[in-house]
Amino acid sequence: MSAQKSYLERSKLHSNPTAKAFLELMERKKSNLSVAADLTTKAGLIELADKVGPYICLLKTHIDVVEDFDQDLVDQLTALAKKHDFMIFEDRKFADIGNTVKLQYSSGVYKIASWSHITNAHMVPGEGIIQGLREVGLPLNRCMLLLAEMSSAGTLAKGDYTETTVQMARKYKDFVVGFIAMKRYADQEGDDFIYMTPGVGLDQTSDGLGQQWKQPREVVYDQGCDVIIVGRGIYGKGRDPAFEAKRYQEAGWNAYLERIAK
Ligand code: BMP
């Protein structure tokens, strides 16, 4: 079971170079925290990334909400990723046919594939979506996650949909390295998926718009997931992002240490 292995042990066996580097980074930095930086200005996003940078393994962006996006934002985020040693995950949630997602991933204003180490997609269109993204991403050493489940109330991503998503990930595991999921699924021979879980908050349980927040320990220790994704719990109104990021880093890492010691 990969849940019982350390990130370092898993990195040694991983076949995807970016997933391998990501697992090494988590161990080196003692962080399984990803900050969901849903900010709408370039200055705000850069300031947050710089403040939380020392505590995170992954910066998760929604680049299309930034009102004054430009190439300089990408350059600055890339420089901050180097300075603080984190990776970037554009949470694009692709959901179209293979040919269209190829264009959305490689081209347009954002050129996501040129800077985002990891991206993700819904399986609604069928496996062509993976094939399209893979054609663009694999030569650039990128990788992706599939949304197998969601954190929001009433999500349709469950049951057979989740199971088929896992099968598709197994079929394309040179490029699909993990899931957005609420729990770890049963491993098969050769599986080592990275499980990332949004909807994590130490102080609140819901936002009135369907989001459901769980405790880091519940996610990492009880459910066996690898990365906690935290947004408003860190940058929300009145919060000190560096202080909160450190708090979540410790909570996530302690839960991981407890898990591998099981
Ligand atoms: P917050 O911690 O502020 O609720 O932010 C959660 C982040 O994770 C958001 O960026 C959201 O888009 C993302 N997310 C989620 O909340 N649930 C999912 O199932 C998948 C997500 O990507």
UniProtKB/TrEMBL annotation:
It comes from the Eukaryota. PROSITE patterns: OMPDECASE (PS00156). The active site is at 91 (for ompdecase activity), 93 (for ompdecase activity), 96 (for ompdecase activity). InterPro entries: Aldolase_TIM, OMPdecase, OMPdecase_AS, OMPdeCOase_dom, RibuloseP-bd_barrel. GO terms for molecular function: orotate phosphoribosyltransferase activity; orotidine-5'-phosphate decarboxylase activity. One of its GO terms (biological process) is 'de novo' pyrimidine nucleobase biosynthetic process. Its EC number is 4.1.1.23. Pathway: Pyrimidine metabolism; UMP biosynthesis via de novo pathway; UMP from orotate: step 2/2. It catalyses: orotidine 5'-phosphate + H(+) = UMP + CO2. Residues 32-247 form the Orotidine 5'-phosphate decarboxylase domain. Signal peptide: none annotated. Substrate binds at residues 38, 60, 151, 211, 231-232. Keywords: Decarboxylase, Lyase, Pyrimidine biosynthesis. Belongs to the OMP decarboxylase family. This is Orotidine 5'-phosphate decarboxylase.
